[in-house]
Automatic annotation (TrEMBL):
Residue stretches making up the 4Fe-4S His(Cys)3-ligated-type domain: 78-117
Glycosyltransferase in keyword set: no
UniProt KW Aminoacyl-tRNA synthetase keyword: no
Name of the protein in its database record: Formate dehydrogenase major subunit
UniProt organism field: Paraclostridium ghonii
Family matches, as Gene3D superfamilies: 3.10.20.740, 3.30.70.20, 3.40.50.740, ADC-like domains
Domain of life: Bacteria
Molecular function as annotated in GO: formate dehydrogenase (NAD+) activity
Length: 350
């Protein structure tokens, strides 16, 4: 453990923490764009800088480890001045479309610009932003959109794809606001390696990567388990007007904030008008709705007739990874106890 001071308040923290993590233990908020506790810190965005007593240069809180005896200042005049420059430079390069952007109300750049009184030169921001030639929006992916005009070069999309998803579906080069054009940061997004998992969309702090259909603002979140397989990924359903309008990955034990393409984008079946809501029995060549009692009686009659004609070995069961372990256990028990054979398989066995 190290004894340190944050804003002249003494505290004791683990020697393995970064300054950003140490500040979190004291509920001190430090603005950040590129930080993600799952990723290797690179301090790309530069807004999380703090001042350390005795040092001339400011340091990035996300990538600097605490040292014994440190006295850290998170909101000094020098810190605020540097953060203002970072925010101002980002906004000068940013398409100022907050009122029409899908991320309005849930955008870190918008929040920091509104909440922190850093003394940003709004006239310069408006002037520089209006001069920028807008780059074409890439909507080639069927599930999400990449708008380079809103990219702030935090590289979280690239790093999540590289370090966590291991898909390598995004190419990234250079850094900084003066040595590169906005179209050079993400040279190619949605390469053939891309599996459209949407994890890049989930971590984007602004409106550069957004789903083609979905809502961010004024939604209620409900934690649940993804139904598509047996991994048990946790996510939050975004609910608006009693309809599911989006999915946000949760930090569950099995998924750690990641999802596959089905978990992230495959929620629309819930409200689909063609979704089955009652059993169907084919009568005279056409499926007709039936009650559950009629369906159970129909299945039992079919079971008995097949058993009398062909014997127990005529039965087989195939179960699904979308079921829970308990449901799969009950199904195999039914095959062995009712069908009286071991002809049971599972879609995920291979």
């Amino acid at each position: 453990m190290f004894n340190i001071k944050i804003n002249d308040i003494k505290t004791q923290v683990s020697n393995e923490l970064t300054i950003l993590e140490a500040c979190k233990t004291m509920k001190i908020d430090i603005p950040n764009f590129c930080h993600d506790e799952r990723l290797v810190p690179h301090a790309y965005c530069g807004i999380c800088v703090v001042e350390i007593e005795g040092k001339d240069e400011l340091v990035p809180a996300c990538a600097t480890k605490v040292e014994d005896g440190m006295n850290i200042f998170t909101n000094s005049r020098k810190v605020r001045s540097q953060r203002a420059k970072v925010l101002e430079n980002i906004m000068c390069e940013h398409a100022l479309e907050c009122t029409t952007c899908i991320r309005t109300g849930n955008c870190k750049l918008q929040d920091y610009s509104n909440e922190y009184s850093y003394g940003i030169d709004k006239n310069r921001v408006q002037e520089e932003s209006s001069k920028k030639k807008l780059l074409p929006i890439d909507d080639s992916n069927p599930l999400f959109i990449y708008d380079p005009n809103k990219c702030i070069k935090c590289k979280k999309c690239f790093r999540v794809c590289e370090e966590l998803q291991s898909t390598h579906g995004i190419e990234c080069e250079l850094r900084g606001y003066k040595i590169e054009r906005r179209d050079q940061l993400i040279e190619e997004i949605g390469k053939p390696e891309c599996v459209s998992c949407g994890n890049c969309v989930s971590v984007c702090p602004v409106g550069a990567l957004t789903p083609k259909k979905g809502e961010f603002y004024n939604v209620k979140k409900v934690r649940t388990t993804c139904p598509y397989c047996g991994v048990g990924c946790q996510f939050d359903l975004k609910i608006k007007n009693d309809q599911i309008v989006g999915v946000e990955p949760a930090n569950g034990d099995s998924n750690k904030g990641l999802l596959c393409v089905k978990g992230k984008f495959g929620y629309k079946f819930v409200n689909h008008p063609e979704r089955l809501t009652a059993p169907l029995i084919k009568k005279d060549g056409k499926f007709e709705e039936a009650t559950w009692e009629e369906a159970y009686d129909f299945i039992a009659d079919k079971f008995n007739s097949i058993k009398e004609k062909h014997g127990h070995e005529a039965f087989a069961g195939l179960t699904s990874a979308r079921c829970t372990n308990e449901e799969n256990f009950l199904f195999q028990k039914m095959v062995r106890a009712v069908m009286k054979n071991n002809n049971i398989d599972h879609c995920a066995r291979l």
